[in-house]
Amino acid sequence: MRPDKVIPLNDARNKIHRKIEELAKRRGHNAAELGIAESIPESGLLDSPSLLELIIWFENEFGLEIDQDQLTLENFGTIDAMAAYAENAAA
Predict the structure, then answer these.
(1) Against a cut of 0.85, is the pTM above it?
(2) Which domains does the chain have, with CATH numbers?
C-alpha cells in the first residue's frame, strides 16, 4: 500500500528516532545517542513488544501496510533503513 503523502527522508528519520526514544524511555533506557545506522535490535534499547509497537506505529504514521516478508533487518533494522523503506514505498 502506498502512503497518503511523501515525507522527506530526514523528517522520517527524526520521527522514527523520536518514537524509539519514547519506547526506550518506557523501558528505562535513553536512546538519544542511537545513530541512524545503528542496529535497533542489537542496541538492546527495545524488547520484542516494543519492536512490534514500533512497526505498528510505523505503518500508521506513514500510511503503509507492510507484508510479513518485508519485515527484515535490512528494511527495519536501523532508523536509516526504516526511513528509506518509507521513502521507497512512496515512490
Answers:
(1) yes
(2) 9-90 (1.10.1200.10)
